[in-house]
Amino acid sequence: MEARPGPPQAPRGKATQEATHERLERMARVADQLAAALEGHEPEAVSTRPALDAWSATEILCHLRDIEDSYVARMRLMLVNDQPTLVVLDPDRWARERQYQRNDAGEALATFRAARRETLVFLHELTEEQWERSANHPLLGVITVRRIVHSMAKHDQAHLAQLERALAGQA
């Protein structure tokens, strides 16, 4: 399925504390932005794929819910291991195996919202040294916790735009 953005790209250049703070603020707002985008849409519209190879808004919300746990698990792994090697995730497989299309969009959003709150608490407690802990990613090379957070913020915005397109019937 070509409905989702590709793997998040590691940001280029040195990620600064100021830039990270801005990303955390964006991450704190995304659940409300998703909820606002869903407002006024009938359940059928939320669960309808805009094209055969595109995700519905429901599937996008399920993806965001599930990927949140994976991002946090990766960062926790990086905090307790020196340069672990991460695995490449397969969100399309998750969508099929976890039957995203049969999930409730409201429940997926509520679970994502709760998980995101926990993620932000976790991230705000990190020391500067922990922000720079790193891992090896098979596609992206060496990435730090900070770079994962920057990628998460970009990933959120890509899927918010994708959700808005799906609700408008556009792939």
Description of the structure:
The chain has 171 residues and is mainly alpha-helical. It has one domain (17-167): dinb family like domain (Four Helix Bundle (Hemerythrin (Met), subunit A)), CATH 1.20.120.450. 61% of the residues lie in helices and 5% in strands. It has a two-stranded antiparallel sheet with strand order 1-2. Helix 1 runs antiparallel to helix 5 (105-124) and helix 1 (17-38) runs parallel beside helix 7 (145-167). 30% of the residues are buried. Mean pLDDT is 93; it is low at 6-13.
* Name given to the CATH homologous superfamily: dinb family like domain
Helix content: 55-70%
Number of strands: 2
Q: Given this structure, which CATH class is correct?
A: Mainly Alpha
The description of the largest β-sheet is: 2 strands, antiparallel
Known CATH architecture? Up-down Bundle
Task: Specify the overall morphology.
Answer: globular
Low-confidence stretches: 6-13
Radius of gyration from CA coordinates: 16 Å
The secondary-structure class comes to mainly alpha
* Strand coverage percent: under 5%
* Strand arrangement across the biggest beta sheet: 1-2
Number of domains: 1
Q: Note the run of SSEs as H and E.
A: HHHHHHEEH
Examine the coordinates and then state which fold CATH places here, giving the name of the CATH topology: Four Helix Bundle (Hemerythrin (Met), subunit A)
The separation of the N and C termini measures 11 Å
Average pLDDT taken over every residue: 93
Q: State the helix count.
A: 7
